[in-house]
Amino acid sequence: MSISFPLRYQENVSEDLSWAAQVSPGYQSYSTDDIDYFPTDPASQELLDIFSTLGATLESRYSGESVSGAGVSVSGEVKYNMTPELSLGGRLGFNSFGDYKDTSAAMFMNYTFGGGSD
């Protein structure tokens, strides 16, 4: 489950240049179940279970978990119109929740066929 409250600001600096920034604070919650290390290989899983019982390995299954807390997403974008049909730009983004951290970067080129004339 996730709920966020996006706040976005956009500004046209000139007829050709624009930028935007967004921040989305929120709350997230998820849970996972315990699962075998070898869910599709019963023989290997059985052998690992035996080793775990003998104390040769710490565990024979991935432990499940339940996590809840605050998260945030932040992004920014710049776009420049080279011509009425062609624009170039870039985006940066960052997402965070607990131990999870994700950054992204992208460049883009948009071309509108026909130039928008009737």
Automatic annotation (TrEMBL):
UniProt xrefs under InterPro entries: BCSC_C
All copies of domain Cellulose synthase operon C C-terminal, residue ranges: 1-113
Keywords on record: Repeat, Signal, TPR repeat
Protein name stated in the entry: Cellulose synthase subunit C
Source organism (scientific name): Vreelandella olivaria
Lineage: Bacteria, Pseudomonadati, Pseudomonadota, Gammaproteobacteria, Oceanospirillales
